[in-house]
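Design request, tokens follow.
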């Protein structure tokens, strides 16, 4: 899953706040059942956290859904950001720098249901791609100058509930995962019209990786290196595993499964490459969501070398009942500091920051979000 870059957007969003290479902001979808909102937090170079602003979306969340779904997006034209309301199946649009809400997009053919609505913006700033779990389709939305959204063409039907989508760095390809069906599908994107065209056949991991029928292959969120070739895909199982594949001119090949039996974690839902990893060789962070009591949440740190993954260590969050995605804040090297959002058993949500030295994580600060009683797992932040 590509959590769209917030670094430059925050410079325009809050002109009074200085943004250096290793400090920035987080945008958090609170997924509130009774009136949804988004938190905007500041993150210092040492990982210190503070609430800067809370903005109501005008819709409602569901308090859960796919942990890995990218339920926020920042317009790459640095003028808009978007927050999904799964409960009311709409997308709230906000203007930058005023933070004024410009509208809520909805359409009868599109439903988030309980699983979520995933978002990804095109690098040219023209389109917001949206994956709707309830109606199992992907819709292309045009972004107007005032940040309002309109449907382009007809939604593209998918063979499974969908929420996790990622667009390549060059903006030419979108990839969607099918968690229940165990697959990935790539689409080429038309930069002018936004149209999606299938690139090759669906990659079905059960047919490509011999261990999948035994271990289980349920792909969720994704990340990709600077070549747009080497993909890392989270794998939602009761153990700690991930998937990889290569994307070429005819679609996906070279599918493989990685296991982390000594990590002590479960349910890897979100991969995130550090700046060095994205460039070819550096840290890969795998956010383990856990499955409640007995199946711990936390972060796996591995080394990513041009598509090859080597396990280094893991940090267990003993206080977390569930946890969401990992987010780098710094934009060089390890990406230190990094953050992960997590929830206790009563759905009280906390952002935890860590500083990173080599492959070692050190807890820095924690901050409770404004959401309580709803699981909030989706954050966007500085880091690309």
């Amino acid at each position: 899953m590509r959590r769209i870059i917030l670094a430059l957007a925050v410079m325009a969003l809050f002109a009074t706040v200085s943004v250096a290479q290793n400090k920035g902001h987080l945008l958090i979808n609170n997924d509130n059942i009774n009136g949804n909102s988004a938190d905007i937090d500041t993150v210092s170079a040492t990982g210190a956290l503070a609430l800067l602003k809370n903005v109501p979306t005008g819709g409602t969340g569901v308090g859960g859904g796919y942990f890995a779904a990218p339920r926020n997006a920042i317009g790459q034209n640095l003028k808009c950001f978007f927050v999904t309301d799964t409960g009311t199946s709409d997308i709230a649009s906000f203007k930058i720098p005023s933070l004024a809400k410009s509208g809520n997009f909805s359409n009868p053919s599109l439903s988030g249901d309980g699983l979520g609505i995933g978002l990804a913006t095109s690098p040219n700033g023209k389109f917001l791609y949206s994956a709707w779990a309830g109606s199992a389709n992907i819709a292309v939305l045009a972004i107007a100058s005032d940040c309002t959204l309109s449907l382009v063409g007809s939604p593209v039907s998918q063979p499974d509930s969908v929420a996790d989508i990622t667009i390549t760095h060059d903006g030419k390809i979108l990839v969607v995962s099918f968690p229940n069906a165990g697959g990935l599908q790539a689409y080429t994107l038309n930069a002018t019209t936004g149209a999606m065209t299938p690139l090759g056949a669906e990659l079905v991991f059960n047919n490509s990786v011999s261990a999948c029928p035994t271990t289980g292959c349920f792909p969720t969120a994704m990340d990709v290196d600077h070549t747009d070739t080497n993909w890392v895909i989270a794998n939602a199982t009761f153990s700690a595993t991930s998937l990889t594949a290569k994307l070429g001119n005819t679609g996906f090949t070279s599918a493989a499964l990685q296991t982390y039996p000594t990590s002590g974690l479960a349910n890897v839902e979100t991969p995130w490459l550090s700046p060095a990893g994205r460039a070819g060789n550096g840290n890969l962070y795998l956010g383990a969501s856990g499955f409640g009591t007995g199946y711990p949440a936390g972060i796996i740190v591995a080394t990513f070398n041009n598509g090859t993954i080597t396990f280094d260590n893991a940090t267990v969050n003993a206080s977390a009942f569930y946890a969401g995605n990992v987010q780098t804040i710094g934009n060089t090297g390890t990406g230190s500091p990094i953050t992960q959002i997590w929830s206790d058993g009563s759905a009280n949500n906390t952002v935890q920051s860590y500083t990173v030295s080599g492959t070692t994580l050190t807890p820095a600060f924690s901050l409770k979000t404004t959401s309580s009683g709803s699981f909030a797992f989706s954050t966007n932040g500085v880091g690309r």
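Comment from the thread starter after seeing the answer: thanks! Residues 1-20 have pLDDT under 50 and may be disordered.
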